[in-house]
Amino acid sequence: MSEQDEQDRALFLVVTIKPRQDRLEEAEAQLQSMRRHTLTEPGCVFMHLTQPQDDPDSWVMLEMFRSRAAWDEHMLQPYNTEGNAILEGLLREPSELRLLDEK
């Protein structure tokens, strides 16, 4: 597959988020704000903040972007860069990000 084909394929993301227990409301409010902005981006197909049934202390953000380029553009948005900086103090550890390709 060519590099251009890879850039044009949909990109899926699974982000595991571990909020501080004493900052849950702030962390969720920040994530929901970032999500609302992201959903207005033409390259965002979906973004859902979910709660794993088997891990009540973590959240998982499920995301799909039209392409890697769309996600790269998303990562440059001020509400994302500034939001991630705010989140640093609201999380127990850095989020785990997994990028996935559709088969």
From TrEMBL:
InterPro entries: ABM_dom, AI-2_Isomerase_LsrG, Dimeric_a/b-barrel
Domain (ABM) ranges: 11-99
Record GO terms (molecular function): catalytic activity
UniProt xrefs under PROSITE patterns: ABM (PS51725)
Record Pfam families: ABM
Name this protein carries in UniProt: ABM domain-containing protein
Organism: Cellulomonas terrae
